[in-house]
Amino acid sequence: MLVFVLNAGSSSLKYQLINAETSELKASGLVERIGIDGILKHEVGENKKLTFELPIPTHKEAIELVLRILTNDETKVIDSIKEIQAIGHRVVHGGEYFKKSVLIDDDVVKKIENLIPLAPLHNPAHVLGIKICQELMPNVPNVATFDTAFHQTMPEENFLYAVPYGDYTEHHLRKYGFHGTSHYYVSNEAVKILNKKDSKIIVCHLGNGSSVCAVRDGKSISTSMGLTPLEGLIMGTRCGDIDAGVIPYLMEKKGLDTHQIINYLNKKSGILGVSGISSDLREVIKASNDGDKRSKITIEMLCSRIKKYLCSYAGLMHGVDAICFTAGIGENSDLIREKVCNGLDFMGIELDTEKNSIRKSGIREISKKTSKTKIYIIPTNEELVIAKDTFDLVKKK
Ligand code: ADP
């Protein structure tokens, strides 16, 4: 079954065309700057990379363009869009409504809309993406896969904030967690390797946005992101955990309103804010190697925060069978992996620094033979989870 996987953002959309039965990736791409000017980067296989710069005023035109590219003579991977048998949408916020992927109907769309106050930047674009697909491909079933769904198994003690309880029941104030599809995929791959019941796994998804997740017996029991993706680790431009008292203090000192303080904490902080160099960790590592002190401290802060979560999650689960690193930083930075694992031998976490430094693709183990806890690099594949969930739900239907 050919599944079109779509991740619609406010001015961008990512897509993949996947054969859900064989896991074959037929094509993928990214449309950016929708409504501004427009650029489409399209990939077929390893070698064929195409870039188109043309006006793309709306999301509808963006999706129409992608469908044309998929079927156009020069770029085609399918003869007709009729070959697309299902569409899988990545949806950031599913609130407490959705504990797993679902077939989309009017009620599902309404619920995703109801959650807009919790994900004002993301859910409106997802709804738009869904409605456009329903219009352009009226007979094709749509499925939604939620970033929050995997974390719906967290126990109350790990998702509640210590504020008056009524604000949870009345205003839905709680930790939801994100990157759920990635944490599910990576921990599930680790479970397959470990081949063990009652597994205790910690997934470190370290990308532009980053989060850690404690997965016990295949279920998320705690994760570092919260009501919004701002909580937890230090990220590209997000501060992560911070004393809530910082907010009124800074608003007063700098004369910021609510929108400005949120922008400050989400867009101007994190790796970018501390280093003053970039949100791209590669540039910060380079500057640090060239002697830049703020870049050096940024890297230390980043790793210290990850280590804090790692150790607390190992404590929460009474041990850890495997630590998995994934996403841009987790998969590619031997420096960060080494700093995070350094000194944890006392808890049975022993990194093999030589294996860690070898650059290879695919899943690999980087712990020493003697390490009680296995350490893996597991490249994430959220789109494949969406395609497979879509296939399963559509097949059942
Ligand atoms: P996103 O969350 O946007 O999907 P990615 O998972 O692609 O992000 O991760 C992007 C981050 O990965 C950037 O900070 C980038 O600097 C970092 N990264 C990629 N390769 C390396 C590397 N070799 N060393 C350090 N950081 C890297």
Automatic annotation (TrEMBL):
Identify the metabolic or biological route this protein is part of: Metabolic intermediate biosynthesis; acetyl-CoA biosynthesis; acetyl-CoA from acetate: step 1/2
Please share the entry's free-text remark on the cofactor.
Mg(2+). Can also accept Mn(2+).
User: Any idea which GO molecular function terms this record carries?
Assistant: acetate kinase activity; ATP binding; magnesium ion binding
Write out the entry's keywords from A to Z: ATP-binding, Cytoplasm, Kinase, Magnesium, Metal-binding, Nucleotide-binding, Transferase
Oligomer and partners: Homodimer.
The record's function comment reads:
Catalyzes the formation of acetyl phosphate from acetate and ATP. Can also catalyze the reverse reaction.
Family listed: Belongs to the acetokinase family.
The protein, known as: Acetate kinase
Native species of this protein?
Arcobacter defluvii
